Amino acid sequence: MDAGRRATIVDVAREAEVSIKTVSRVFNDAPNVRPHTRDRVVKAATALNYQPNVVAQGLVGRRSYLLGLFYENPSPNYVVELQRGAVDRLRGERYRLIVLPVEQVAQVADNILSFVRSAALDGIILTPPASDHPAILEHLSAARFPFVRIAPTRSPEIQPRNITDDVAAARAMTEYLISLGHRRIGVIKGDPSHPSSEARLLGFSLALASAHLPPRLDDIDQGMFTFESGFEAARRLLARKDRPTAIFAQNDDMAAGAIMAAHDLGIDVPGELSIAGFDDSAIANIVWPRITTIHQPVFDMARSATDTLLAMLEKNPYPDVVDHPFTLIPRQSTGPAPR
């Protein structure tokens, strides 16, 4: 074979001394291929660095071998972890990942089947808020289109699901801040279209109630899971004379924005103000002080969801629910409440 030319199925057949049809059957996992013949073909393909044509394989088996990762989340750090987890599981597989970002899930919900079919997908991974959207779940379920949900908070009967307990995680973080002596804790909420935002607010409220601390509606400000929204919400919270001594932002991007707002206002973190986040995304380790946060295993959830989707497509057993534990990670952005 000429140097620099990409190996073809013809080259593999010649090297292995078999027919082109036999090579095709080997790479399509067809039955009734003798083991020693399969080994010869695989060895020849490896020697020639031959890469099977996934599209051609799909035409033979009426599959595209394409999986979709469907998301709206505006946090780039969260999205990167989702992609990393899915891609990690697909290493060595014939399937490929198609990333499908949308501005607003609600705008495509009623046309979700046309959306996934136009992308020629074999299956799809739904992330928040799509993993909770009633119309999306109804349409995909009715069409028996393969899908897996990541971090849903509603409709537990619709499976398979990869979950973590947002309520318990937010409660644990709030209890941690209370244990540091904070009695007035502000919250920066995430995008209201994401059910996880309400789940985390519920966890916060349960921790306050357990500590007999009154909830204060003016200590709750709206963000959108972005750095900029966290910055603006923190400025509003910190502009008050009776400002909170701690802020719990519902993701790390908003927590980083809150730290920047505190710096601009000359407020020491954590000496005068503690700030905590959620997700344990890359930004939590980049900003200073590093952010106390909840480690939500986004990478593991995406990898597990991809594994489940592969099992569904290959008609192998798979779990209905995979529950991923969270971890509270104290860092330098929180400390004792100021006296």
Automatic annotation (TrEMBL):
Gene3D superfamilies to which the protein is assigned, alphabetical: 3.40.50.2300, lambda repressor-like DNA-binding domains (1.10.260.40)
Pfam families, A to Z: LacI, Peripla_BP_3
Keyword terms of this UniProt record: DNA-binding, Transcription, Transcription regulation
Domain HTH lacI-type: 7-61
PROSITE patterns per record: HTH_LACI_2 (PS50932)
Molecular function GO terms recorded: DNA-binding transcription factor activity; transcription cis-regulatory region binding
Name of the molecule in the record: Catabolite control protein A
Taxonomic lineage: Bacteria, Pseudomonadati, Pseudomonadota, Alphaproteobacteria, Sphingomonadales
